[in-house]
Amino acid sequence: MKKFSHLLIFLSMGIFSQFVTAQVERSQLTSSIENREPTDNLEGLVQGQNDEIKRVYFFTQITGLAKQQIIHRWLYEGEEKAAVTLNLGSDNWRTYSSKRVPNYWQGKWQVQVWQGDIMLISHNFEVSYPE
Questions:
Q1: How far, CA to CA in Å, does 109 sit from each of 29, 69, 91?
Q2: What confidence tens digit (pLDDT) does each residue in 33-65 have?
Q3: Ramachandran area for residue 94 (φ above 0: left; ψ -120 to 50: alpha; else beta)
Q4: Which residues on neighbouring strands pair with residue 72, listed in sequence order?
Q5: Domains of the chain as residue ranges with CATH
Q6: Which residues, 6 or more positions from 59, have their beta carbon under 8 angstroms from its beta carbon?
Q7: Would you call 22 helix, strand, or coil by DSSP?
Q8: Helix or strand run (H / E) with residue 26
Q9: Phi, psi of 22 (to 5 degrees)
């Protein structure tokens, strides 16, 4: 029984160590991505035009999760509108997802970055279209 409890402790340390070492180095809401880098910083306000559907991108640089996955969850007024699974290729990986936001979805948005059942980071922003 003692060997079994030691095995459980050892296995749990391995499982939890991946969460301790996983880190979001950078994250940014942007209007476009070039060469896996954000082109600007929209911060907390996204301004659309009435004759277009605005597309926004969420850039994330993650360390410590080689060969694993993260999920970008896009929430509008608290309701999930998209969940994008992103594969991480190495221990230092830049990735992004995007969301098209029509003018009838103006208001409060949030992007959450998840690894398994742990939320690593979230970013709040507001989308506005002219009246």
A1: 11, 23, 29
A2: 999 999 999 999 999 988 899 999 999 999 999
A3: beta
A4: 84, 113
A5: 23-128 (2.60.40.1930)
A6: 26, 27, 28, 29, 30, 33, 37, 38, 94, 95, 96
A7: coil
A8: strand 23-30
A9: -70, 135
Q: What is the pLDDT of residues 78-128, one digit of tens each?
A: 999 999 999 999 999 999 999 999 999 999 999 999 999 999 999 999 999
The conformational region for residue 11 under phi > 0 = left, psi -120 to 50 = alpha, else beta, is: alpha
Tokens standing for residue 66: 């080689």
Cα separation, 70 vs 64, in Å, equals: 12
Q: How far apart are the first and last CA of the chain?
A: 69
Candidates 116, 125, 65, 52; CA nearest to 95 is 65
Length of the chain (residues) = 131
